[in-house]
UniProtKB/TrEMBL annotation, chains A, B:
Residues 53-72 bind DNA. Residues 30-90 form the HTH tetR-type domain. It comes from Embleya hyalina. Residues 1-28 are annotated as: Disordered. InterPro entries: BetI_C, Homeodomain-like_sf, HTH-type_TetR-like_transc_reg, HTH_TetR, Tet_transcr_reg_TetR-rel_C_sf. This is TetR family transcriptional regulator. It holds the Pfam family TetR_C_6. Keywords: DNA-binding, Repressor, Transcription, Transcription regulation. GO terms for molecular function: DNA-binding transcription factor activity; transcription cis-regulatory region binding.
Length: 219, 219
DNA sequence: GTCTATAAGTTGATAGAC
DNA sequence: GTCTATCAACTTATAGAC
């Protein structure tokens, strides 16, 4: 009993039947949660929030839709959990905490990020699709998207500000403006790249932009 | 008979009851179609394709959902009609046909467009939301979005090319790259602006970008 | 050209057994 | 923690009367 039909790719659940002793140190529940989260992330990336159904996620995670809703009480709660997960992964990768780095260093970091992103279209698509959807005021991710950009802009602006203060960057650069433009360029190129990867070399175009930008704002 | 409940904003349909003579020159059907298209455009902009229902559009157009499907045989056909409508309106406004204009002139035109767009958030949102959704490969607007960018890039690249040929622009500019970057900046700023209009001055930021870009690529 | 009626399916969420 | 069963609502689309 308790065997699911055909197994699907993702890491199978830690399901050891009833033989497993009931000690408290075993995080099987968390493993399940993590698995659901990863699948949900893929589905939201592939079809957006509105285009994704709980049934589909549940099927891929090899449990029923009701079982899924035991771990996340609503679809919206699941979305929030996915966004939180991604944000934490991203922050770790970007080391935004250890900013400000001074002007040139932050920008170099983003160039590097653009290159890295070209290898993970799925994750890039998650942000592009969800952020696009989230423009709608009543979308559950609206606040998340708005706050995320505000934070990113502020963070990069602070770095540029430090660069100006240290004399590395020209005194007449507008840190907030440049920060907004850097993210705009990144997102816009991601969009064109996702739509037409063969004709748009995201990393090269972004690198080129940053190179000229640096030439302009460096002291 | 044939009276609808409470009237909703948009131009009322040309519904003159049965007294109307049945001559062939009367475009009442077209007026209805146009009204539906305008409402559908608003709804798609507000909620995306997946988030919009035919019933809602029909209600606002003051007919039934089945009545709506007499004019457009499917939801997808309606979407295509909306996109075509917008494309035609846009082409008219941008005069892409009368390009190439030479480098500086095209870019000035886009700066102007950014300013104009700030007055029509609804239409900007239509593109942003639908293009984001359309990143998904199986989305009905996927091909439209990809082809639209390809066309826009080619068109602007041709203008820049002409600018290079005439000696107005430096010989070392990469027209295709610059074209992609200009649209990326435009779209990225639109996204941030739609999410947070109070903190992002789209037109100013885009104008600033173009200004510096011109300084760099002008001969 | 518009309607009513309905098909046929999906959705997110809940109740309660085990 | 997971299941079955079920709900009420909503979806797009079609058939056929007027």
């Amino acid at each position: 009993m308790d065997v699911r039909p055909d197994d699907l790719s993702d890491a199978p659940p830690t399901r050891a039947g009833r033989a497993r002793p009931r000690g408290r140190g075993y995080a099987s529940g968390d493993a399940r949660r993590t698995r659901i989260l990863n699948i949900a992330l893929q589905e939201f990336a592939e079809n957006g929030y509105r285009g994704t159904s709980l049934a589909r996620i549940a099927e891929r995670a090899e449990l029923t839709q009701a079982g899924l809703l035991h771990h996340f009480r609503s679809k919206q709660e699941l979305l929030v959990a996915v966004l939180d997960l991604r944000d934490r992964m991203d922050m770790a990768h970007l080391d935004l905490a250890e900013l400000p780095l001074g002007g040139a260093a932050v920008l170099a970091k983003f160039t590097e990020l653009a290159g890295h992103n070209q290898a993970i279209p799925g994750l890039v698509q998650l942000f592009t699709v969800l952020t696009g959807e989230a423009v709608t005021t009543d979308h559950p991710a609206h606040g998340w998207a708005r706050d995320r950009y505000a934070l990113l802009r502020a963070s990069v602006a602070a770095s540029l500000e430090a660069g100006v203060a240290s004399g590395e960057l020209r005194a007449d650069v507008d840190p907030t403006a440049v920060a907004a433009q850097v993210f705009a360029m990144m997102d816009g190129l991601q969009l064109q790249w996702l739509l037409d990867p063969e004709h748009v070399d995201m990393a090269a175009l972004f690198g080129d932009y940053v190179e000229h930008l640096l030439r302009r704002i460096r002291a």
